[in-house]
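Section 3.1: Structural characterization of target chains.
Under the original work plan, the team committed to producing a structural model for every single-chain target entering the pipeline before any wet-lab resources were allocated. The record below documents one such target. The sequence was received from the expression subgroup and is listed exactly as submitted; it comprises 274 residues.
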Amino acid sequence: MSKILIVGKKSFIARSINKQSKHHTILINYEDLIKKKDNFFKKFSFIINCSSNLNFIKKKYNIKFDHDYNIALKIKDLNCRYLFLSTRKVYYPKSNIKETDKLQPICHYSKNKLISENMVTSILNKRFLILRLGNIIGYDSNKSSRKLHNTFMDIFIKNARNGIIFRNPHIYKDFLPIKFFVKIIDKLIVNKSEGIYNVSFGKKVYLDYILKWLNYYNIKPFKIKTLKINKNNNNKESFYLNINKLKRKIKFNLTLKILKIECMVISKKIFNEK
């Protein structure tokens, strides 16, 4: 069993990994980690950063706001490996995106993530594992969570509680329940994996289906509104990741039926919360 340091106490993903992982984990704030000396890091085999900075998300790249780069500097002369959570937004949006496909980040966040990927890889040589993520879905009941930007789940929950469900029969995306994401991380750590991997469901899931499943336990009245998106922009909105490289590395099987069940479990947590 590996000893894992997870950065980002206010992060939903960080707390989920800390709670669900089969490895021995310790959760720490970025501000506390950056003050630590070498001896603190020597006991960990992997470091996972789930923290970020609003300036990193919203503005042009500035090295002082790059948490991944600054953590990589702290461990550059040590033996521990670094797990970097990146985003599928570094790619040009399309179907069946492979790790070797065209990189075309558009927003500040994705541009900064790609810069950060390159910075970290140059510092750590081969001691890194970069996961380019699709939409991670789950329900965070912790009211102290730090929301630096709105995720797909944040937008859905806000709209649903306001009595609105948006739909578009043409748009599809890629979704992965948080429980399965943690299992994937555990397996990759056991295998001492290196390099870059796409991590998601790996198949197109139309918004109409995922929204129906997530709204399953909503008993309050709601209106269904169709998203007004130009047909020419559907391709820019739709994507799914090719995860063949991930499947060659670890055993991973998530069917559409299982995804539906997991979404309904999430729905129950959202709408049955008192």
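The mean pLDDT is 92.
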